[in-house]
TrEMBL record:
<dbReference type="InterPro" id="IPR025277">
    <property type="entry name" value="Apiosidase-like_cat_dom"/>
</dbReference>
<dbReference type="InterPro" id="IPR017853">
    <property type="entry name" value="GH"/>
</dbReference>
<dbReference type="Pfam" id="PF12904">
    <property type="entry name" value="Collagen_bind_2"/>
</dbReference>
<dbReference type="InterPro" id="IPR024749">
    <property type="entry name" value="Collagen-bd_put"/>
</dbReference>
<feature type="domain" description="Apiosidase-like catalytic">
    <location>
        <begin position="42"/>
        <end position="376"/>
    </location>
</feature>
<dbReference type="Pfam" id="PF13204">
    <property type="entry name" value="Apiosidase"/>
</dbReference>
<protein>
    <submittedName>
        <fullName>Glycoside hydrolase family 140 protein</fullName>
    </submittedName>
</protein>
<keyword id="KW-0378">Hydrolase</keyword>
<dbReference type="GO" id="GO:0016787">
    <property type="term" value="F:hydrolase activity"/>
</dbReference>
<feature type="domain" description="Putative collagen-binding">
    <location>
        <begin position="379"/>
        <end position="468"/>
    </location>
</feature>
Amino acid sequence: MKVMISKKMGKLFAIAGLSCLAISCKVNKEETKALAKLEVASNKHYFQTEDGKPFFWLGDTGWLTFGKLSREEVNQYFEDRKQKGYNVVQVMVLHSLAVKNVYGDFALTDENVSKPLVTPGNNFNNPDEYDYWDHVDYTLEVAEKNGIYLAMVPVWGTNVSSKDSKVTKADAEKYAQFLAGRYKGRTNVIWLNGGDTHGEKFMDIWNAIGSTLKTSNPDQLVTFHPFGRTDSSENYHNADWLDFNMFQSGHRTYAQDTTKGAFKEDNYKYVSRDWDLKPTKPTLDGEPSYEGIPHGLHDTLQPKWKDHDLRRYAYWSVFAGGAGFTYGNNAVMQMYHKGEKKGAYGNREIWSDALKAPGAGQMKYLKELILDHNYFERVPDETIIANQGEKYDYLAATRGADYALIYTYNGRTMSLNMGKIKGDKVDASWFNPKNGENKSIGEFKNEGVLEFDPPGEQADGNDWVLVLTSK
């Protein structure tokens, strides 16, 4: 069945969203300055912009942005994320082969990835004359205006892996050529191949998409977004098209994950493993437990992951050498709207309300902390820790030549091997991941083993970063 819809009919799907087009939703392409190209830094572990400035990836999962947000809502979303310090948004281009946007515009003809439904001559700013891909273009413009890069998944993994999949290698390659051609020269595009899928399956299709995108536009970064508790490095680390690694630390608790040899909640272990791989490539957690989602996803009676859980995943993975971190929220990732019959994973919160979730506003403090110190020389260093613990007692440590950062999730006393950074003495302070405040605790000799006791009682979520700087 051919899936097409007229522009006049499409308008009926989102009348409320059209009122903004003449004013707040209009984006003047000529006034929007292109973002700097992103590249792998010379140390191969982190990112930088083309002019050599540090780029700390702070991402959000806005997976269903293209399909579920009107232009007015696109502006609202990206303006909010800019204010909260985000510089990357991860989004699906094709959530399904039958996907359409709020204006009723389908992405594909006959649900065939090789047949993008493009209407020639569409007017970028006229709601009567644009299609699905014009809406994608519009979103890219709004993201760019707000200093945000879009990390786009060409086609979500289930569309390839399902038993009745219509996606062939030839069609996938043709589709990738379309994407590469349409977004050639776009400086704020990053590609996330795959999409919550097992990397060892359908490798011919994923390699075809990845190779086509990278060969066509070598300046756009490409990675693979894998299934939960797996890592792109397991299958594609040596692929010519893969610029950096991404893992999905997942949504299950220690007790819920009974897989033999699994890293479970210890997401820093993915980073530690990737750090030592050759050739050296950046790595980051592209999908941890979402704020507001049930433990383990599917049982809605389970407790929900909270802001302090997201902080733990963020600081653990970044201090282990991660090139950044991607935050997620259950309502925002699915752009849940009032009136929808049923949200995924028990969600009932409106996406725009969830923008204000505590964890969403706390991620920027990690970014600011990392960028406040020498970015490119930073390395993970667990030898600083003299009383290392397991699970929530784990202490994460990272340092440069003249600074060290040590994170505790539960406020337990740290015993530290001093002398790991320069100087006979160090200044010490407690950094609060909840609000970014820094409180000095004095000057200490940089020798022997010293104990530091964080503020408050020991309890999960009483997290702190000890900041040591050389005198």
